[in-house]
Amino acid sequence: MSLFLVTFGIMALAIAGMAIGVIFGRTPIAGSCGGLNAVNGSGACQSCSRPCSSKRAAAMAKGGF
Fold first, then answer.
1. What is d(CA 65, CA 47) in angstroms, rounded to the nearest whole number?
2. Residue 40, pLDDT score
3. Total-model pTM
4. Residue 16's pLDDT is what?
5. Which residues of 47-65 are buried (b: 16+ CB within 10 A; e: fewer)?
6. Using CA atoms, how far apart are residues 13 and 50, in angstroms rounded to an integer?
7. Residue 31: pLDDT above 80?
8. 34-45 exposure pattern, b = at least 16 Cβ within 10 A, e = fewer
């Protein structure tokens, strides 16, 4: 039971720290454009507002942006 309480306390502190960071104006944790988004081969990044230069160049070659 004590291991559960210690683990719960550590997780609660981590979540509280992230919440306090967002409250004070830090940007929230965000996902990347890679990972599972690139598995299906679409390569389309729905969450990036400013794509990196390689993505921008590929989109320009396809007629995007």
1. 15
2. 57
3. 0.42
4. 94
5. eeeeeeeebeeeeeeeeee
6. 32
7. no
8. eeebeeeeeeeb
